[in-house]
What we know:
Layout lengths: L1 E5 L4 H12 L3 E5 L6 H4 L4 E3 L5 H5 L5 E4 L5 H7 L7 E4 L39 H12 L4 E5 L1 E3 L9 H8 L4 E4 L9 E3 H14 L3 E5 L7 H12 L4 E4 L18 H5 L8 H14 L4 H4 L13 H8 L1
Parallel strand pairs: 1-2, 1-4, 2-3, 4-5, 5-6, 6-10, 7-9, 8-11
Amino acid sequence: MRALIWGGGGQIGRAAAMDLARAGWQVDAVTRSNLPTEVLALGVTALAPTSTRAATVARGYDAVIDTLAFTAADAADLMAEPAGHVTVISTASVYADDQGRGFEQGDSFPHYPDPILETQALVPPGPGYSAGKVAMEAALASRAAILRPGAIHGIGARHPREWWFVKRALDGRRRVPVAFGGRSVFHTSSTTGIASLTRHLAERRITGTFNAADPVALSVAEIAAAIGTVMGHRFDLIDHDVGHTPFSVENPVRLSTARARATGWDGGPDYAACLPDYIAWLISNANDWQTAFPVFQRYGQDPFDYKADDAALA
Length: 314
């Protein structure tokens, strides 16, 4: 069985390539950067991007996984050549609440049903990340498996949300102000679980739209405790709005995975099981984290402003 992964150098592509290779698939990974040594060690072949997705898919594959499709044009390019099975990574931010608000739409945070089903309304298609993903999904129609993850975590992340807590633990910060008292729920999705669902659907040629999330949606306080357990560190979370973590949301974002489980998928690993290797990787990048995790530089404010933390605690 041959598989092609578009975006093999990213966190989801890396996990999917390794999962498929370990299952005996022959895997080609399209990437602009070098593949990690642990991926190459499994026999995955790196391919340079071609002018179009179709030009690469035309080589003939039993499964194609696209982690980088953002628009309807990307979807059309991907489907221009036949493949045995196609999986595309979308996002939970395509969902709209009953007032039409999404992550990027409206003047306040959406209030979703709890949990969110795949039948929930979507934001209108158009420009921008979430709206572009909606247009991409519509262009695929029912010809592919579409996965909608939540807050993704895994080795290779450019925006590892867990770093917000890991760095504070490394810096000896115990008392930490956290918005909403740590009660926020933003459902996490491991790259390992996304990869296992991808292979499960490809092996069975199942198409459709599926939420892809961890077995249990943890609160911010539970995430902090899980990270602290791995690092041998205790966090005392203090309710204060200065502590807006990357998981802090006003209303819960909890994804139902019942539809994916109904296909026979085992649900993937739980959050805590993924942390030891992931945190070790985060720590290995600690000395140059600004370069390794560039999305934190786009926050518009310092996510590690300890002076503001101390002032809030005082």
